Amino acid sequence: MKLRRVINGEKTINDVGSWKTGEKMPKTAFPVRGTGFKVPGKYTWRVVQFACEGESFRLLMAYRLDLQRAVFYLGKEARSEMLVLCRYEFHSGEPGWHMHCICDDEDKVSGRLVCDDKRLPHWDSFHRELALGITRSEDAYKRADRVFRLSKTPPYELEGQPWQA
Ligand SMILES: [Zn+2]
User: Fold this and answer.
1) Distance 1 CA to ligand 1 centre (A)
2) Residue 85, domain member (yes or no)
3) Mean pLDDT of 41-47
4) Fewest CB atoms within 10 Å of the CB: 33, 36, 101, 161?
5) Is the pLDDT of residue 164 over 50?
6) What domain count does the chain have?
7) Spacing, Cα 151 to ligand 1 middle (Å)
8) What is the 11 CA–ligand 1 centroid distance (Å)?
9) Phi/psi at 63 (5° precision)
C-alpha cells in the first residue's frame, strides 16, 4: 500500500501505547528485519498501533531533548515484523523536519538516522519547520497526530504536505 494512502486513510487505533523514558524498547514493540534496529535507552518512546484499509500498522515515536532529536517510524505489519514505510525526523546536521520515504511502492526504508533514500523536502529546498518544537511528550504526539493523521477522518484538505503532491 502506498504511503499516502496510509496517511490519508481512515484509521482505527487499536493500541495508543504510552510514553516510556529510560526503558529499553522490547524487540517485539517494533521488530524490523535484520539486526541492530533499536531505540537507544535515552530516548523517550511510544508505539501506537492502528489499522487502515484492512492492514495493520505501527507508528514508533522517539525523541531526545538533550540532543534535540526526534524520529517517527511508520511500519506495516508483515507477519511478525515491520516493513518501514517512512521515517520522519528532526536531527542536527540537517535542516528542519523532513521525511524519508519510498512513495511509489512498498519497501523498506532504512532504520538508520542516515539519509539515503527519498527525502522530502529536498535538502536544498525550503523547510517549513526549522525547530524541533517538542518540549514535552504531548508535543511529540500532537506532531505525529498531525503528520500521520492518526485521529482525523478523511477527506482532508490536501494542502501543505509535500508528499501529497
Ligand atoms: Zn534525515
Assistant:
1) 23
2) yes
3) 93
4) 36
5) no
6) 1
7) 25
8) 26
9) -150, 160
